[in-house]
Automatic annotation (TrEMBL):
GO terms for molecular function: single-stranded DNA 5'-3' DNA exonuclease activity. Gene3D superfamilies: 3.90.320.10. One of its GO terms (biological process) is interstrand cross-link repair. Transmembrane segments: none annotated. It comes from Fraxinus pennsylvanica. This is Exonuclease V. InterPro entries: EXOV, PDDEXK-like_dom_sf. Signal peptide: none annotated. PANTHER family: EXONUCLEASE V.
Amino acid sequence: MTESPAPPRPPTSSNATKIPQEIISEEEMALIDAAFVAAQLPRNPSCIQSITRTLLGGTAPDIEDSGRVDWSDWDSRPLKKRNRGIDSFLHRFRRERGLSVTDIIATEWCEKQMEFFLLFGKPEITNAMKVGRARHVELEQEVTKSEKVPVKSNEDIWAQKFLNFIVGANQLIFDGLTRELPVVGFVEGIWIIGKIDEIRLPLTDSERYATLVDTKTRVHPRLPSEPQRRNGRLQMMCYKYLWDSLVDDKFPAENLFNYFSVNPHYILSPEIRENTRKSGFASETLNDLVGYFRNSCRRLPRANNLLILRYESQEDQSLLGEDPFAYDSEWLTDQIKSSVEFWLNKREARYTPTEERWKCKFCKYTKVCTVNSTPDASSPS
């Protein structure tokens, strides 16, 4: 991939448009704070437009956030014997929130690594990961700011996701640019959630398509290997699928209410109701907010079939290159179906292919993985 200049940013209004408050979780903010400390980035970047991102307090940590890997309980017997009579990974670890796009691409990278991740907990976050997160925070805070309000229920948590989407959709329509937009969809019988890094929308063209962009930071000043690019492409294709499904109004709200056991008639917290009132779409219940959410989706265009991955250096944030690629619906469907098979424990987890065993050099679970972890292939990191 040859290096190419970054495409111009869409124009923004010189006068800041008042946009309703956006809500994120307290856990996200903890990661943001940690990333800032690790990377020593400035806390007050210049803003393109002011959007208030509201932090919800009182959310429980995800089950996957269990700290360091503990090998003391490792049992080398086959998975099907160890898990006999136990529910699927989806039920055990993602029952209350559904799968994330990250869950999908993690199984494409290596299913055995994902299996160990679920059973033993995630390894410590590397400095490179912290810097990458901090860069995404920096990009996001160019167009947002944050404040905190309490959360009292699962209904409030889901309300925050819909409110965040409405906020981002408004910004996209008004300014032609939004970042960190939450999306959710029902795919292959599974609820999948994600957060799109960046969306651009021409403000003048009569026939408009939304352009989805994701920025990857690189420790080494070169473009990634093909397996790494493939993994990023899968992530972007998942985002396009979720985006287009929302735009096409393929959102089974009743299924969501039943699956996540939330009451659509639940009265939202006073803080969220006040935010919706100030934003111009006053909502008393979760069902009210879902109605506004679906109306916002209908106003948006479908995503362009050309998706963009940007790669920049962690050292100086210079652009290393871009990877524009075409959406492939058949390949995406195959990848999602394969991932769902893993999450439903319909088969044993697969090892990474022999030609990609260089990945094992960077895996934290080599102590329990029986695959040859010292392949001859050199790392293309």
